[in-house]
TrEMBL record:
Record-linked Pfam families: RecR_C (PF21175), RecR_HhH (PF21176), RecR_ZnF (PF02132), Toprim_4 (PF13662)
InterPro entries: DNA_Rcmb_RecR (IPR000093), Rcmb_RecR (IPR023627), Rcmb_RecR_Znf (IPR015967), TOPRIM_dom (IPR006171), TOPRIM_RecR (IPR034137)
Role this protein plays: May play a role in DNA repair. It seems to be involved in an RecBC-independent recombinational process of DNA repair. It may act with RecF and RecO.
Protein name, entry field: Recombination protein RecR
Entry-linked Gene3D superfamilies: 3.40.1360.10, 6.10.250.240, RecR Domain 1 (1.10.8.420)
DNA damage among keywords: yes
C-alpha cells in the first residue's frame, strides 16, 4: 500500500501532456529516490511561473510584464505582424528565421466542436490592432491542419477587412526531402501551390 502523498504526486504529474500512469510513477520515484533537491527546485520554479507569468496585452504571448520584451522593442518592424497558434510556434519562427516583425499568439485555433471560436483566440483584440493602421502585412503561420486552414482563412478575411495584406507561410516538400517519400497530401498541396522560377 503506497502513501497518499505518493499517489497525489503521481496524479499531479499526469497533468503533463503525454504522461500516463507509468511515466508519472517513474518520474515520482526518480524525484524521491535520486533528485529531491531537483524536485524542490522544480516545485519552486513551477510555483513562481504559475504565479508570475501571464499574457502580454499586445500579442497574448507568455510574459512576466504587461507588455512583453518583443512588443516593447523599438527594433522590431511594427508593419509586419505574424499570427501563430502557440508560444512554441512563435519561438520556432524566432529561432529559425531572421523575422524582425511582431507577433500575435492565438493560443489555439478555431475549433467549433471544442468550443473554440474567435473570442477564445482573441480575434477582437487582433481586429483592433489591425484597425490601428500600423500593420501593413499579416503573416499567417497557422499549422496546415483542417482547423489551422480554417483559422488561416478567417484571419485572411479579417486582414482584408482592415486593408491589411494577408500572406500565408508556404508549405510543401521539405528541404532535402525526396518526392517518393513525401506523403500524398503534402505533395498534392505543394504541386498545387507551385511558383514561377525567377530568372
Amino acid at each position: 500500500m503506497s502513501s497518499a502523498l505518493l499517489e497525489q504526486l503521481i496524479d499531479a504529474l499526469r497533468v503533463l501532456p503525454g504522461v500516463g500512469q507509468k511515466s508519472a510513477q517513474r518520474m515520482a520515484y526518480h524525484l524521491l529516490e535520486r533528485e529531491r533537491s531537483g524536485g524542490q527546485r522544480l516545485a519552486q520554479a513551477l510555483s513562481e511561473a504559475i504565479e508570475k507569468i501571464g499574457h502580454c496585452v499586445r500579442c497574448r504571448d507568455f510574459s512576466e510584464s504587461e507588455v512583453c520584451p518583443t512588443c516593447a522593442s523599438a527594433a522590431r518592424d511594427a508593419h509586419l505582424l505574424c499570427a501563430v497558434e502557440s508560444p512554441a510556434d512563435r519561438l520556432a519562427i524566432e529561432q529559425a528565421t531572421g523575422y524582425r516583425g511582431l507577433y500575435f499568439v492565438l493560443q489555439g485555433r478555431l475549433s467549433p466542436l471544442d468550443g473554440i471560436g474567435p473570442r477564445e483566440l482573441g480575434l477582437d483584440s487582433l481586429a483592433a490592432r489591425l484597425g490601428e493602421g500600423e500593420v501593413q502585412e499579416l503573416i499567417i503561420a497557422t499549422n496546415p491542419t483542417v482547423e489551422g486552414e480554417a483559422t488561416a482563412h478567417y484571419l485572411a478575411q479579417l486582414a482584408r477587412q482592415h486593408g491589411v495584406k494577408p500572406s500565408r507561410l508556404a508549405h510543401g516538400v521539405p528541404l532535402g526531402g525526396e518526392l517518393e517519400y513525401v506523403d500524398r497530401g503534402t505533395l498534392s498541396h505543394a504541386f498545387g501551390s507551385r511558383t514561377e522560377v525567377s530568372p
